[in-house]
User: What shape does this take?
Amino acid sequence: NREDIVEICNKFKIQDKYMDTAERIFLLLFFIYSFLGTNSFTYGHKIITYVMWITFMLGGLLLLYRLINFRSYYKMPGAVFLQFMLASMGISILANYQYAFKENIIYAIYWVFYFGLLYVQRSDLSLETLREKFHFVAALFIIYMTVGVIASYILMITGYNGVFHAPDTNFEYRLGFSIGRLWGIFINPNHAAFSSCIASALLIYFITRTKKIVTRVFYVIDIFLLTFYISMADSRSGAISMGVMLAVISLVLLLYKNKEKRWIFKGLSVLTAAAILVCGFYVPRLLKDAYNQVINLTVSTDQPGEEQGHSAFTIERGYDISEDISNRRFDIW
Assistant: This one.
């Protein structure tokens, strides 16, 4: 009868409310785990293991719930394609089991969490609910990167740096400004530069979602801080990612605005996006050159007899191959 149907629906609403709360707790734990595992202050500490097990157990329960109720999730766009990606990764792990098998299993678990919990959502959710979930994840990521970048600048200003080795794997990681680039609090400056690019893209999205001038100015300042880290880290991967990101955003916006116009406008949109790609790649490098000129000028002013360009904080990776922009990657490929 009708009362039984209403009771069942109410139970599902309560259950969904609990699951939404559990998912938010998982996301917080997952980002805390990521933050602890990717910065030099806490890398290798036992606290990471404790947070990891709590996160993995809660994530496993959420995945089990989704598998039991897979009919509510499989219609998510791209879900089937992501399952094939996971299957291909599983085949690769088994085919190359003699190479870093444990690490590959951990990466596979990450992928399952990324695709199965962060991306895939119930098909009955409204667009506004999906947007709220996305904003929550995006805000966590932006806060994580902004705090990390600011902390990295503080380390550089104070002159704090060091080289450390993980006790279990003897993995070498650095802190602060070292060997001609800014590592900051991140154990891998290239990964941090790429993450800065992603955070910048999310901030651009939020700029389009708000009309408050003060908020937009705050977002623009944050984008500059993230972009400047790409320059200080001297990351080609980050610079390329920044150029591609800006080009894709520009192309999508221009094509959307010119969708009713002739093909010549669409062609100009493509050319404009290509020009933005080049500019996006060179902006971090120009910032790096400007920083080096300022820091070297400061050294020559403080020590007039010294040759310019020998500051300990000059961005210059001496182990790079300056004649080859790919640093011999093209030869390897």
Q: What stands out?
A: The mean pLDDT is 82. The beta strands are 161-165, 172-178, 181-184. The first strand starts at residue 161 and ends at 165. The chain is about 70% helix and 5% strand.
